[in-house]
Amino acid sequence: MILAEAVALTVLVVLVLYTLTGGADFGGGIWDLLATGPRRVEQRRLIEQAIAPVWEANHVWLIVAIVLIFTAFPLAFSVASTALHIPLIILLIGIVMRGTAFTFRQYDLNRESRGKWSRLFAGSSVLVPLFLGICLGSLSTETIRVANTASISGFFSPWIGWFQLSVGFFTLSLFAYIAAVYLTVEAKESAIRADFVRRSYLSAISLVFTGFVTALLARSQAPHLFERLTQSWGPWFQVSGALCLFTCAWSLLRERFRFARVFAAGVAISILAGWGYAQYPYSIIPDIPLNLGTAPEATLRLLLILLAGGSAFLFPALFWLFKIFKKY
Fold this sequence. Notes:
By secondary structure, this protein is mostly helical. The protein has helices at 2-33, 40-51, 60-72, 74-83, 85-107, 111-140, 162-186, 190-221, 223-230, 234-253, 257-279, 297-327, and strands at 146-147, 150-151, 282-284, 288-289.
């Protein structure tokens, strides 16, 4: 059980890293879609410069998470990939469409075609976070039921529901919020920076609203999640997130943009850590606890050793990649 918990904690850390990097890139696509006003061209140019050319590297975290899950928790992976087959397919199509659209937008010389690629890029940037949130929300409800190690819930009922949809919009708001705060650091012109400061406040309001709605729905549709978040250590994650949100807003007001970026990351970490705490001790609520259908201990031990060894190469490589391309 200890090894399974260690791998599950590692998956959660990887999801946090994906949110702080890839999530911010998706958020940039959301603001590309919502770019308005006399500086909309400059806003989109800033987003493009902030995303390119390292944005695809951020998907390494999603790949690591998937490999860890299907290696360490094959039963949970099998059940989830069956019950959530449709939203997962939509999510993957969205990721591919987004990458394709961003690439062709860069090199297409036809202005009309570039506009179409831009809309596809922005639309996919909305689609992916929405369905990522829907999939995560589905794991916390009691809609995915298992019998004889197989899902018996069908292809639609596990993920179609108000709670799952609210988690999708909550994820969308979180990604938009992180991106807006990050872009205040990237912006060099004061007017463009001011635009994204306003967007940071707007997305923070959206984050609070969608979070409140999600919490209300969780009481009836995700009771285990609600109970864990309102008892014992659960409220502290909410306090931590609220403090980070408030401090980020204060830092933006005082034009301490790098501090704001740190506290925006703190908001995301608090949310995901709280979700992981509330989900425990289940992989999928209510039928698959962490210790059910896990890989043998020897496999889990070897997986953690290989992950530690790989991290010694992965983190320096990513650091060097970001350092080089952000410099030039």
